[in-house]
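Budget justification aside, the reviewers requested a transparent look at the raw inputs and outputs of the sequence design task funded under Objective 1. We therefore reproduce one unedited record. The lines immediately below are the structure tokens for a 132-residue chain.
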């Protein structure tokens, strides 16, 4: 059996983790889209001046979506390694992993609506009042 590669230092573990994120970003279009959208949401959050609790909820939702995407990518790679040929159970594993991402994204969208909709409505109302 092949010996496990010695890593040791904490900085090595950190580097490997970063490599994983960079690899996933290079290969997964969906992840790139979610990261882009996350930056957009953070900008909008600064613009509206969210309170501490709102910031915490928004950042947690972003973290949940991006980590779900990373886990999904890891599972896809694992499935491709274990079952490069077409097999129904392999497909199911991938579908379930994608389903997990879809679920988290759906909840994140609901959170986004709950937090940002009142700000957008207030902004719209201010605009209407200024025009009068
Ligand atoms: N080895 C396999 N055996 C059976 N079905 C598979 C296999 N690989 C993929 N599939 C089916 O094809 C679908 C798409 O698989 P693919 O590897 O292309 O993922 P993907 O489209 O890159 O996913 P994502 O869009 O989340 O990155 C899977 O959800 C699964 O239903």
């Amino acid at each position: 059996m092949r010996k496990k590669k010695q890593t040791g230092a904490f900085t090595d573990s950190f580097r490997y983790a970063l490599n994983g994120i960079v690899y996933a970003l290079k290969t997964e279009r969906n992840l790139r889209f979610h990261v882009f959208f996350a930056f957009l949401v953070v900008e909008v959050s600064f613009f509206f001046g969210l309170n501490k609790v709102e910031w915490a909820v928004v950042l947690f939702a972003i973290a949940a979506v991006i980590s779900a995407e990373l886990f999904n990518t890891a599972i896809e790679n694992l499935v491709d390694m274990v079952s490069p040929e077409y097999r129904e159970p392999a497909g199911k594993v991938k579908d379930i992993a994608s389903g997990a991402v879809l679920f988290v994204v759906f909840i994140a969208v609901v959170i986004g609506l709950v937090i940002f909709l009142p700000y957008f409505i207030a902004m719209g109302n201010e605009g209407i009042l200024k025009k009068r």
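The domain at 10-131 is CATH 1.10.287.3610 (Helix Hairpins). Residues 1 and 32 are 37 Å apart (CA to CA). Computational costs for records of this kind are itemized in the attached budget.
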